[in-house]
Amino acid sequence: MSNASAPILEMHHVGKAFAGNPVLRDINLSVHPGEIVTLIGPSGSGKTTALRCMNFLEAYDQGEVLIKGQLLGYSGNLRGKAHTDSPALIAEVRRPLAMVFQQFNLWPHMTVLENVVAPLVLGKKMPRHAAKHAAMTALNQVGMAQKASDWPVRLSGGQQQRVGIARALALEPELLLLDEPTSALDPERVEEVLDVIRSLAKQGMTMVMVTHEMAFAAHISSRLVFMADGYIVESGSPRQLFTQPESERLRIFLAPLFRRPLQPEELESL
Ligand SMILES: Nc1ncnc2c1ncn2[C@@H]1O[C@H](COP(=O)(O)OP(=O)(O)OP(=O)(O)O)[C@@H](O)[C@H]1O
Prior knowledge:
Shape: globular
GO cellular component, one term: plasma membrane
Order of helices and strands: EEEHEEHEHHHEHEHEEHHH
Pfam family, one: ABC_tran
Subcellular location: Cell inner membrane
Bound molecules: adenosine-5'-triphosphate
Radius of gyration: 19 Å
Helix content: 25-40%
Strand content: 15-25%
Number of strands: 10
Largest sheet: 6 strands, mixed
Strand order of the largest sheet: 6-7-8-3-9-10
Number of helices: 10
Family: Belongs to the ABC transporter superfamily.
Keywords: Amino-acid transport, ATP-binding, Cell membrane, Membrane, Nucleotide-binding, Transport
């Protein structure tokens, strides 16, 4: 029986080490349809690694990641190390996900349109004419349809990232992963990308995001997840986390990320 509110993503006791150094420790997280979950925390706390384990761009080495109830990346019991490295199986399980990268990752030798069409034709095996139609719809959604025949190098960073978002949207993901989508941008280009993400939020897109844009994260997220030293140290709605008296330590923890103290009215508006 299908359940509309079943989680799209589940992480159970996920651990990961690089060269013996633990980077993720006992990560437990579920994401349900319509949620916007933002991972925040100091540099090196494991946010990007957690995001990359969600779609198996990084192999985790403890616990389980499930996408719509299906185990991602391992064919059996991980503790028994029954690892499948079948790219076809991994691609199949991760199909409901799409990712937006910090460095856009556009192919420089392809036009804007081809950048969005290629994953549809090569990955989703969509016929070219249908792929072009889907790509133009997605480019329109991010306000980049007029630039369809331009080369990426001709675009500003903000425009390139909007194409990166269109490329992910064209895949019609049920969950969009965004890895610091504005960190590589000039300050004056940040807002146009945040505007696109805000409009996706309004449309009900389910998202997991890593960002250092704290005020944005606090306003857009249904849940903030704080990471430190590979652990999830706290999680909850922005309102819960910022307004409950016992969260004073979080406000202190967060102040450097906002780069200024939070004003009472800002807390009230969360
Ligand atoms: N491929 C890798 N090989 C070795 N170590 C890595 C690799 N990727 C990440 N690390 C290390 O894992 C730790 C966590 O990195 P991660 O990028 O997940 O942190 P983060 O919280 O996203 O940091 P930031 O906010 O600076 O992006 C860091 O110490 C980093 O140096």
